Amino acid sequence: MAEKKPTTSRKRSSGTSRSSGTSRTSGPSRSSRSTKSADAKSGEKTSTAKSMTGETVHFTRDEDVYAYREMLLVRRFEEKAGQLYGMGLIGGFCHLYIGQEAVVVGMQMALKEGDQIITGYRDHGHMIACGMESKGVMAELTGRRSGYSKGKGGSMHMFSVDKNFYGGHGIVGAQVPLGTGLAFANKYRENGSVSITYFGDGAANQGQVYESFNMAKLWSLPVVYVIENNKYGMGTSVERASSTTNLSHRGASFEIPGEQVDGMEVHAVRAAGERAIAHAREGKGPYILEMLTYRYRGHSMSDPAKYRTRDEVNKMRTERDPIEHLRSRLIEEHKMSEDEVKKIDKEVRDIINEAAEFAQSDPEPDPSELWTDVVR
Ligand SMILES: Cc1ncc(C[n+]2csc(CCOP(=O)(O)OP(=O)(O)O)c2C)c(N)n1
Ligand SMILES: [Mg+2]
Asked: Does an H or E element contain 117, and which?
């Protein structure tokens, strides 16, 4: 079954040769993704939501289906990765993105072909959302030769030039100067692209973030800094780690505008993403989006998560889950039947099962590969 992806013409990475043919089909056309009332005017049925800034955001049925499917793909991928990890098939660190899906999917709907994505180690969702294939990502997790880094990088070290995905970085905050450098290159080359640089609430206290902010503003670089505030950096809450907890203000002394966004609401994320990306693309310089989100699982697979209560997690899961919320919207506002929604669920499950089977049957890299792709 085809793995449906957001943008129409992004090619599959040559780093993952897979024979079982997962051809792309396009997501909803970009022209139909306006946050304004164009969809409503055209007479097409839309669903609406209010963002934190009070604006009304419209999604067409196609857009809601697309967002639901993509978020579910990320969730099921991560659940499967967690299972394979538990079976001992994935080694090393593994940081799951479960709960935060609306952030990457909403941002992906806001960006354009050519815009780059760079993030930290909680990166599987970013890869799936930007069009990298589940099989190649899963095979990398299990250390197989068709993985995106030929089985030699693992969870935190995958890249895809074709999809403009620049990693996957294990050092907290290290991607921020790199993402700023991507923006510098965009400006230098006058290519009109924007760098979407993701980092966490914990990383937001890193010194290199502020050196980057300074340069980005000084040179008006086209970069959107997306702070994924999931409330914790490992076992430390934002309140315990940060002197100021409204992270959208962190660019204030550099005169970088910022806003807080409901990161559990894909509509709000896309609307804010469009605003921020337009600002950067128009040459006005950097913009900060603080996504208020939550991770349901521990920091990594080895985290017993004793620093928060089960009730706290359950409350977010039951009251704020971005996927369940959109599922209700598909049924209540777009009048989709349970069977139609279940069909999407099954398609997604099939893709992930196929990826998991592939990741277990694909051979490991040849030992001679130990001597390739390294600086000697
Ligand atoms: C420079 C550096 N310091 C410390 C660590 C250990 N470490 C790994 S993740 C992490 C917490 C980061 O939290 P946050 O930025 O909020 O991201 P999240 O894990 O919540 O996505 C820390 C301290 C590291 N990898 N790199
Ligand atoms: Mg965090």
From this structure: strand 116-118
Sign of CA dihedral 31, 32, 36, 42: positive
The answer on pLDDT for 64 being more than 90 is: yes
CA distance 173 to 206: 6
Ligand 2 centroid from CA 253, angstroms? 23
CA distance 276 to 258: 9
The pTM of the full predicted model, rounded to 2 decimals, is: 0.91
If one looks up domain 37-360 in CATH, what number appears?
Answer: 3.40.50.970
Phi, psi of 233 (to 5 degrees): -115, 110
Give the Cα-Cα-Cα angle 39, 40, 41 (nearest 5 degrees): 90
The number of the ligand 1 atom at minimal distance from the alpha carbon of 238 is 16
pLDDT in tens, 210-223: 999 999 999 999 99
For the stretch 309-326, pLDDT in tens is 999 999 999 999 999 999
* Over residues 244-256, mean pLDDT: 98
Percent helix, percent strand, percent coil in the chain, to nearest 5: 45, 10, 45
Strand residues in 181-321 grouped as ranges (E)? 195-200, 223-229, 232-233, 236-237, 258-262, 287-292
Q: 143: part of which helix (H) or strand (E)? A: none
Whether the CB-CB separation of 292 and 238 falls below 8 Å is answered with no
Average pLDDT over residues 282-297: 98
Task: Give the binding-site residues of ligand 1, using a 6 Å CB cut-off.
Answer: 122, 170-172, 200-203, 230, 232-234, 299
Could you count the other beta carbons within 10 Å of the beta carbon of residue 233?
Answer: 20
- Length reported for the chain: 376
Residue 16 gets the label, from left (phi > 0), alpha (psi -120 to 50) or beta, of: beta
Which of 104, 172, 227 has most ligand 1 atoms within 8 Å of CB, for mutation? 172
Question: Could you give the angle at which helices 322-332 and 61-86 cross, rounded to 10 degrees?
Answer: 140
**DSSP letters along 57-99, please?**
EEEEHHHHHHHHHHHHHHHHHHHHHHHHHHTT-S-S-----TT
